[in-house]
From TrEMBL:
Protein name: SDR family NAD(P)-dependent oxidoreductase
Domain Ketoreductase: from-to ranges: 3-180
Coiled coil: none
Keywords, comma-separated and alphabetical: Oxidoreductase
Family listed: Belongs to the short-chain dehydrogenases/reductases (SDR) family.
Pfam families the record matches: adh_short
Length: 249
């Protein structure tokens, strides 16, 4: 049977492009997210190799009930793509919304670790599997207003490093993918809650596209089983870190 991949947040952006690419590559894909109609559209476009499955990453009970709540012939999940996530706001910490912080932590951190915990035992038991998470350059490089979003991605990065330690001696692989500026997704629309401001983020730039992320995931997964890519930091050519800032006076 084809390798089964579960992609979280497959209704938009990277997750959708990853699901499309991996079905094309010959994988069976469980596509999850909250927006059922988007998942159904994906299933209609991609056929029986894609299973749409509504899952809210902040619903701990539903997340922890995986894989038991999947149809029986989809329960052996070989690959987990921890992609669902979001940034909310760019306010300074002293002004940011606590509710926004709670939602980012619930999705990017709590949901991500809970689904990993739910699916990892099956991978270890079968001695075959791969967890790929979407970290971010925001987990390494601080910037104004990134406060909790950046911290959530730093958590993802260290969690993935620690997974490698726990999985040593098994054939289960773990990879953290850390992109910088990316367009073609709903990330900035969600973050800024304003489509015009979101579009302006990418004015005059040539950002990484969801298909570039999907290509990278496809490459990481397709490497021989003895090769583990620990982490990949990727930026568009038009981006680099700006270094430290100093205020005088
Ligand atoms: P999008 O906003 O386009 O997609 C986010 C996806 O996450 C959607 O499918 C959404 O589905 C899902 N999602 C959000 N909240 C939940 C939830 N509570 N339960 C289930 N699914 C949820 O963003 P991107 O594709 O750009 O981002 C994907 C990942 O990549 C994120 O983790 C992001 O932090 C990371 N990333 C993004 C970068 C960028 O510049 N775009 C750069 C670096 C990393 P739905 O709303 O249907 O539930
Ligand atoms: C998304 C990239 O630079 O907006 O994680 O934080 S950035």
């Amino acid at each position: 049977m084809a390798t089964t991949v579960l992609v979280t947040g497959a209704t938009a952006g990277f997750g959708k492009a990853i699901a499309e690419r991996l079905v094309r590559d010959g994988y069976r894909v469980i596509a999850t997210g909250r927006r059922k109609e988007r998942l159904d559209e994906l299933a209609a476009a991609l056929g029986p190799a894609l299973l749409p499955f509504v899952l809210d990453m902040t619903d701990s009970a539903a997340v922890q009930a995986l894989p038991g709540s999947l149809p029986e012939d989809w329960r052996q999940v070989d690959v987990l793509i921890n992609n669902a996530g979001l940034a909310l706001g760019l306010d300074k910490a002293q002004q940011a919304s606590v509710e926004d912080w709670q939602r980012m932590i619930a999705t990017n951190v709590t949901g991500m670790v809970e689904i990993t915990r739910a699916l990892l035992p099956g991978m270890v038991e079968r001695n075959r599997g791969h967890v790929i998470s979407l970290g971010s350059t925001a987990g390494t490089y601080p910037y104004l207003g990134a406060n909790v979003y950046g911290a959530s991605k730093a958590f993802v990065s260290q969690f993935m490093r620690n997974l490698r330690c726990d999985l040593l001696g098994t054939h289960v692989r773990a990879t953290n993918l850390e992109p910088g500026l990316c367009g073609g997704s709903e990330f900035s629309n969600v973050r800024l809650r304003d489509d015009a401001k979101a579009a302006a983020v990418y004015d005059g730039t040539h950002p990484i596209q969801p298909e570039d992320i999907a290509e990278t995931v496809s490459w990481v997964l397709g490497l021989p089983a003895h090769v583990n890519i620990n982490r990949i930091e990727m930026m568009p050519t038009c981006q680099a870190s700006a270094g430290l800032a100093v205020v005088k006076g």
